[in-house]
Amino acid sequence: MSDKITKTKESIDFTSFKNQVLKDYKLACESREASLLGRKEVLTGKAKFGIFGDGKELAQIALSKQFKNGDFRSGYYRDQTIMLAIEELTIEQYFSGLYGHTDVEIEPQSAGRQMGGHYATRNLDDSGNWKNLMTQKNSSSDISPTAGQMPRLVGLAQASKVYRSNSNLSGLQKSKKFSDNGNEVAFGTIGDASTSEGPFWESINAAGVMQIPLVMSVWDDGYGISVPRKYQTTKGSISDALAGMQRSETKDGYEIFVTRGWDYPHLCETYEKAVKLAREEHVPVFIHVKEVNQPQGHSTSGSHERYKSTERLQWEKDFDCIEKFKAWILAFDANGNTIASLNELEKIQTDAKQKVRDAKNKSWKLYTKDIHIDLVEACALLKSLSQISPQKIFIEKEIEGLEKAYEPIRKDIISTVRKVLRMVSTENNNEKQELANWVKSILNNANNRYSSHLYSESQESVLKAEHVPATYNADAKMEDGRIILRENFKKQLEKVPELLIFGEDAGKIGGVNQSLEGLQEQFGEERVFDTGIRECTIVGQGIGMAMRGLRPIAEIQYLDYLLYAIQVLSDDLATVQYRTKGGQKAPLIISTRGHRLEGIWHSGSPMGVIVNALRGINICVPRNMTKAAGFYNTLLISDEPALVVEPLNGYRTKEPFPNNLGDFNEPLGVPELVKEGKDITLVSYGSTFNLCEIAEKTLSQMGISIELIDVQTLIPFDINHAISKSIEKTNRLIIVDEDVSSGATGYILDKVLVEQNAFFHLDSAPQTLSAKDHRPAYGTDGDYFSKPNVDDIIEGIYEIMHETDPLRYPKLY
Ligand SMILES: Cc1ncc(C[n+]2csc(CCOP(=O)(O)OP(=O)(O)O)c2C)c(N)n1
Ligand SMILES: [Mg+2]
After folding, report:
1. How far apart are the C-alpha atoms of 339 and 329, rounded to whole Å?
2. Ligand closest to the CA atom of residue 224
């Protein structure tokens, strides 16, 4: 090994080799100092929680040497050294993250929203538009669930393959921001224990099948918090467990490398080989970095002395990667050429300590200065009020408390002021008003600090899309819903070169419901393709590719199977904009189909689960395929993630054929008033809406006038409060869907009664009509007795009218 290094050394200028090694040593020392000091900051109470990258420095330095502009990282909380090495993190920013500084300029990873150790680059400009990702090194934003980085990694790597294989796309000027002929690799990192998670295996298999340029590193420190490897991994070794995936002369697969976390030359050599292979040949590579250590244990929430043996703790010291690196440098002697003396190395270490301490102090100053501004303002306002208030002595006590507090945080300050406002609730003076105004402005700022960017705030927000209605020829023919969808997708595939559609059975047969029929033939396998049965990574593919400028539509075959992907949707996709405060986006469209197919797992409608788990994702629930097509069209001119649930009973239902397919669109957040009425407002969506329309006809014959509203999108929900306006007229409300009780109907009820204040207008108790709480039983009878049917809807509404006017509407039975 050292022979090889010696040879390499001879072929390049020794001074630059030496400088590089010393630069690496310096970075390793600085990163380590940041971990050591970070832990102290938590233990002294200045930061809440710390999880650091100590022990992983050398492997990450070796990896970073291969990291090029345009490449992406999808990793986890140990990767501070990578982020420092690729110069996407400064030590000041690292500490600002630890403290939770909410200024994005000072803490660009998440503006204080994520705990320290969760890294990201800023891939959008201040207006939410893509930056040129080819002029920077990129990191997708980390999430905390172990292995949660894996599904997205698949898409980040797949994007390179898409750009390389699709010359129409890679030739476009706008693609140049994302790829240079697919030469970018996606670096994944994970801890040894997290490889036990399902998404890890699913992702590894998917990448092996697809042969995409993914460079997967496992930092194997032998533990997942306290649980050792023997309880985590078959054969106690992830590379042994994956050995069957090793590619051969005849079969594609992975190239698997094994190296050690303290062995600098071997690490450098391994990464050089591995990344070259992935980059040039698009072979996924797996690097098992064994013997990685963990000098400070898992995190600040406990010490590793509790669960590591004395021998293991001694090993942690003996095999500390920086100590080993130091020993290697000191022992290095190639024909009299040496790298550094002990004194020189110690000086580097002392300087690193100082540099990190200075950076930490600077970050802390910035953090406290920001809060101090609020403190000074609050105290001044409180003092003015105390001068004139009968509560003077109590207010002064509060002021004193604030002034004497050690490093008060915003919560201490505003909470004190709110307490004082309660003390003076009966007073009426300017000073009190000013204090109240101040609270309002702080709460307003807090909204920006902690609650902005759940949805896109760019010009491409779905709410800003200009509405183009569907238009029809006078003799418009009636077509199956699936044909309308298919023809619309066709137009979009022609119009949007970045558009890709994929999923189980989406390619060759054109979807289980034929809404993509013939599209693969026409547009090729690069645009419309099949995937394995793996919902979580289908979504992951979509997220990663959407983060690299592509416009994926990921198909989940049935709504019931979305639950396999709910974690990645909820933890990752739904939080991308929020957790980066607008620094990243993933405008992925998930297309699925659901509701009544008459059998458990083909007819579920867990919209309450979805709507509550997926805040941050737009949820469209069209009642027919023209509406569905309209939503796809809006989403494709927007930059937000969304789920479109096509109604399963609509593929073969006839609809008039629009003459502006691909162009018309459907606004989000705008319910459609489908039929005006005066007695009761009936709110529904999706397949059930169609039953409501049938019920309405009978009810109308019975003399009951229904105002029929299709909510169309659950997120955003009725932004102009149309439903409340309708109830103002009818004074009665029923909400019908086929979710379980208190599912999406509970959500709608809260929105309408509480948020829209509609309870003011009600003359009857509001009603909800949903499915039984069990999964819907099989067959037409199972459906009839499990879900609201036309008879139930008629009778549910009739009952409300009966209570209102029993003479006119006598009991039915
Ligand atoms: C889904 C999930 N389960 C549990 C946790 C709590 N947790 C955080 S880190 C961790 C251990 C991870 O160990 P490993 O993958 O080996 O990484 P290491 O910390 O050792 O580098 C656990 C269980 C989590 N974050 N996410
Ligand atoms: Mg571990």
Report:
1. 6
2. 1
- With a 6 Å cutoff on the Cβ, whether 144 touches ligand 1 is yes
Distance CA 506, CA 69 (A): 34
Question: Per residue in 213-270, pLDDT tens?
Answer: 999 999 999 999 999 999 999 999 999 999 999 999 999 999 999 999 999 999 999 9
Check pocket membership of 739 for ligand 1, CB cut-off 6 A.
no
154 pLDDT more than 90: yes
Q: Dig out the tokens for 274 from the structure.
A: 């591995």
Model confidence pLDDT, tens digit, residues 89-107: 999 999 999 999 999 999 9
Closest-CA residue, ligand 1 atom 13, reads 224
The ligand with the least distance to the CA atom of 221 is 2
Cα 194 to middle of ligand 1, angstroms = 6
Which atom of ligand 1 lies closest to the CA of 146? 26
Q: What is the reported pLDDT for 301?
A: 83
Residue 567 CA: which ligand is closest? 1
> What is the H or E stretch that residue 448 is in?
helix 430-451
CA distances from 390 to 59, 341, 427 (A): 66, 72, 9
Q: What is the dihedral of CA 733, 737, 741, 744, to 10 degrees?
A: -90
Q: Whose CA is nearest to atom 7 of ligand 1?
A: 146
Q: Are 116 and 165 in contact (CB under 8 A)?
A: no
Closest CA to 118 of 139, 92, 91: 139
Beta strands, E only, 626-779: 642-647, 654-656, 672-675, 680-684, 706-710, 713-715, 733-736, 767-769
Q: What is the pLDDT of residue 313?
A: 94
Tell which one of 194, 221, 321 to mutate to probe ligand 1, the residue whose CB is within 8 A of the most ligand atoms.
194
Residue 656 Cβ inside 6 Å of ligand 1? The answer reads no
- Give yes or no for a contact between 585 and 635, defined as CB atoms under 8 angstroms apart: no
> Catalytic: which of 602, 721, 761, 802?
602
In the residue annotation, 602 being an active-site residue is answered as: yes
Q: Is the CB of 191 under 6 A from ligand 1?
A: yes
User: Computed from CA positions of residues 196, 198, 199, 204, in that sequence, does the dihedral angle turn out positive or negative?
Assistant: positive
- The label of the residue with tokens 């809060």 reads 371
502 pocket-lining for ligand 1 (C-beta < 6 Å): no
For ligand 1, is residue 598 a contact (CB within 6 Å)? no
Nearest bound ligand to CA 194? 1
Q: What is the C-alpha to C-alpha distance for residues 482 and 654, in angstroms, rounded to an integer? A: 9
Write phi, then psi, for 384 (nearest 5 degrees): -60, -45
State how far the Cα of 531 lies from the Cα of 350, in Å rounded to an integer. Answer: 53
Please name the helix (run of DSSP H) or strand (run of DSSP E) that holds residue 793, with its range, or none: helix 790-804
For residue 716, whether the previous peptide bond is cis, meaning omega lies within 30 degrees of 0, is yes
Percent of the chain with pLDDT over 90: 94
Can you tell me which atom of ligand 1 is nearest the CA of 219? 21
The Å distance, Cα 227 to ligand 2 centre, comes to 9
Find the DSSP H helices in 262-391: 264-281, 310-318, 321-331, 342-388
Distance 381 CA to ligand 1 centre (A): 46
Distance CA 255, CA 392 (A): 74
Rounded to 5 degrees, what are φ and ψ at 345?
Answer: -65, -40
Ligand 1 contact, 138 CB (< 6 A): no
Compute, in angstroms, the gap from residue 577 CA to the centroid of ligand 2. Answer: 29
pLDDT at 12: 65
Model confidence, pTM: 0.96
- Determine the Cα–Cα distance for residues 70 and 36; give it in Å rounded to an integer: 32
193 close to ligand 1 (CB < 6 Angstrom) = yes
Q: How far is CA 571 from CA 84, 98, 543, 579, in A?
A: 26, 21, 12, 10
Distance CA 386, CA 703 (A): 66
DSSP alpha helix (H) spans, 220-263: 238-241
Residues 283 and 276: their CA atoms lie apart, in Å, by: 10
